[in-house]
Write a structure and sequence with these properties.
Layout (H helix, E strand, L loop, with lengths): L1 E5 L3 H12 L4 E6 L2 H10 L3 E4 L5 H6 L7 E4 L4 H13 L4 E5 L8 H10 L3 E3 L1 H14 L5 E5 L4 E7 L11 H7 L5 E8 L2 E3 L12 E6 L4 H7 L9 E5 L3 H10 L4 E6 L2 H10 L4 E4 L5 H6 L7 E4 L4 H13 L4 E4 L5 H8 L8 H10 L7 E6 L6 E6 L20 E8 L2 E4 L11 E6 L4 H7 L2
């Protein structure tokens, strides 16, 4: 597939990295920063073009007329939209634009933009807000992702001393609990991701990735030594788009305080929220946090534009006993560091953007895809077509790559945990966890 990615910094390069790992694609990056592109060229084999993506001559140099997919992920949504409109007129088959304005994402308005040439739009801020709300609904998990309207879900749980599975192998756990409604698909340990087999044992500090049916969630939480936290009071730091959207979603059911340092922005935020208490102040001011009752807060969400501020504020909240902390961490390299210092749950807009877009670059049909935080892996939901290799034998006889594993299958709107004798059929949706080097091999099973 020939793919052109228009960006203006890290998002475009991160997306290019993920896409290049998922298959043999011809990728061209268009970016206005010439020095940055030289650095990229020095350690990758990606083609780069320095220039503005709204320039017709630049797009033509990128061979836009042969592009199967044009992705525009600059910070300025107007540039992204214009890039896609021009790209479609110049011959690109499909165009995807990153946008920030949620008004554009209504069904009616998406159709208007589609008629102009913008086939798909991704709003990272809206997806980030939804992810935060979901994490506050399942507080025992460090990370969650739902497949096919929660018929199956991915849970990430950090295993502490209280977890009853510690020092037990997967085979032993299956023997002790023969009717489990979930399956471990990966273990992240010492910055390394393992696809577990029957003899592998869980250790203290492991990050366990598990595919579960709805019926298995409570038992999963119990075996993981976790408990659900009843969130009644939340504090949000940062009144940008993510902070406002999250407050609007939460204020209907819980008490919300939002702290924003910009006085003028506070006024506009207050006008757009009904029950949220908006406070003008600096979140790094310990006295202010104490005055606003940080000790009585159940969930602390830091979503300012500064990653260091968000991490510091969450560590401070944790010191005061807040049980659920969620920072926005924009630097992908910081995610693993944040987790090692006790911040398990993070939000990253680059990964959110990549999760939405990467599925369009797959050769097989993928209905959903999640790029995971703090681990170089993806979980995908494939739609099974007639006659593909994955349907030719029971799961135990399918030659799955050693760095990938089938976690579950959704059939006729019901989720199943994948076991050896299960036979995958046409129209099934199959949830697969994979490390980057195995993705192209997994795809071949569904093509």
């Amino acid at each position: 597939m020939k793919i052109i990615i228009a960006g203006d910094g890290e998002v475009g390069f991160h997306l290019a990295k993920i896409v290049s790992e998922s298959g043999h694609h011809d990728i061209t990056i268009v970016d206005p920063h010439e020095e940055l592109l030289k650095m990229v060229e020095s350690y990758t084999d990606l083609m780069t073009i320095a220039g503005e993506s709204t320039s017709i001559s630049v797009l033509e140099r990128a061979n836009i007329k042969k592009a199967d997919l044009l992705i525009s992920v600059l910070h300025d949504e107007s540039i992204n939209i214009i890039t896609c409109i021009l790209g479609k007129k110049l011959g690109a088959k499909r165009c995807i634009s990153r946008v920030n304005n949620t008004e554009y994402l209504t069904e009616r308005n998406k159709e208007i933009f589609k008629s102009l040439g913008v086939d798909f739009m991704v709003g990272p801020e809206r997806i980030a807000s939804r992810e935060i709300v979901r994490l506050l609904r399942q507080t025992a998990a460090t990370e969650t992702f739902d497949f096919s309207d929660r018929k199956l879900s991915l849970f990430l749980i950090r295993l502490d001393e209280d977890a009853s599975v510690i020092n037990h192998s997967l085979d032993e756990i299956a023997h002790m609990h023969p009717h489990l409604d979930f399956r471990a698909v990966a273990i992240h340990r010492n910055s390394r991701t393992i696809i577990p087999r029957g003899a592998d044992r869980f250790l203290v500090g492991d990050m366990a990735y598990v595919i579960t049916r709805p019926e298995g969630i409570n038992q999963l939480i119990k075996l993981g030594g976790k408990e659900q936290i009843d969130i009644k009071n939340a504090m949000i730091i940062g009144g940008g788009r993510i902070g406002r959207k999250t407050a609007r979603a939460l204020e209907k059911t819980i008490n919300v305080k939002l702290i924003e340092i910009d006085k003028e922005r506070c006024k506009s935020i207050a006008d757009g929220l009904e029950r949220t208490l908006v406070i003008n102040g600096d979140a790094s001011d310990v006295k202010l946090l104490e005055e606003e009752g940080i000790r009585d807060i159940d969930a602390f969400i830091a979503v300012t534009n500064n990653t260091e501020t968000n991490i510091f504020a969450c560590l401070l909240a944790k010191k005061y006993g807040v049980k659920k902390i969620i920072p926005l961490v924009e630097n992908v390299d910081y995610i693993d560091i944040a987790q090692t210092i006790g911040i398990d749950t993070v939000i990253n807009k680059k990964l959110i953007t990549a999760s939405y877009i990467a599925r369009f670059t797959m050769g097989a049909e993928v209905s959903s895809l999640k790029c995971l935080n703090g681990v170089d892996a993806e979980v995908m939901e494939f739609i099974v077509k007639p006659g593909v290799p994955i349907t030719q034998a029971p799961i135990r006889n399918i030659k799955m790559p050693k760095d990938a594993i089938i976690g579950g299958v959704i059939r006729n709107h019901k989720g199943y945990i994948a076991i050896g004798d299960f036979q995958i059929e046409e129209k099934d949706k199959v949830v697969v966890f994979s490390l980057p080097k195995a993705i192209s091999k997994v795809e071949k099973l569904f093509k």
